[in-house]
Amino acid sequence: MLRRSLEQALGGLDEREQRVVQMYYEFELSYKEIAAVLDLTDARVCQINKGALGKMKATLQSA
Asked: What is the pLDDT of residues 4-53, one digit of tens each?
């Protein structure tokens, strides 16, 4: 049930947010490495990750 809830929360994110979350948590890349792959700054990757986690938290709390 937890896995299904997490998958649903991930599905609510846009593609870039999903990629950042996946690279950070699944592949354990640093913000600097993710920034290089996506051609962003480290700070922007951090902002995207924080926003994605906020959206996921809201989705999980409403479920």
From this structure: 988 999 999 999 999 999 999 999 999 999 999 999 999 999 999 999 99
Looking at the chain, how many residues does it have? 63
What's the pTM? 0.91
Radius of gyration of the chain, Cα coordinates, nearest whole angstrom: 12
Report helix, strand or coil for 34. Answer: helix
Burial profile 9-48: b = 16 or more Cβ within 10 angstroms, e = fewer: bbeebeeebebbbebbeeeebebeebbeeeebeeebbbeb
Q: How far apart are CA 7 and CA 31, in angstroms?
A: 22
